[in-house]
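User: structure tokens for this one?
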Amino acid sequence: MIRTPVFTSPRERRLWLWSLAVVAAIYSTLGLAGTLVGVLREWSLLPAAMMLVMVLTFMAIVGSGLGSGLGGGLRRPPAALEVWVALGVVVVYGMAVLRMGGSPEERTHLFEYGIVALLIHAALAERVRNGRRVRAPAALAVVVAALLGWVDEGIQALLPNRVYDNFDVFSNAVAAVIAIAGSQAVARAAAAVERRRGGGSPC
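Assistant:
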């Protein structure tokens, strides 16, 4: 009897391992988050650190969308449509961060579980590309990321200096939705540009 391999490619395996590593990093630093924020605030580095994390998240969302829409990577300068859609994603994500009240620790949810959702979606998309059947990979990535965020809050309920917060559970789910929706919007724009250009040779 021929055994079906768990992973469809080395890339899918790497993406799942990266997903696991990011989740493990989030869980393992739950007790240290407040201390880290305090140190950054004391050194007046907190705004810069938050901005850096935000920019990296934007890059991950736009980059994953372009890579998906172009079948694996950006092989030409982005077209105007792609730029405008990417800017729209940045504005929506930025507004979500600004409108989300609370401390910097709480705002990090929009970055952490956005990245987790993107990695899971990329792994599922790679699985689909290699012939495996996955129903609604984007929706599945959001659900899995939201569940992992819920586990995050469950762990915090057991820690002496943290509390379980339903708003954070909601924020984790919103982060996953925004990241996947943004990535999909950029991917659709990239695919539309490719169709318009007739799939011509890259610039």
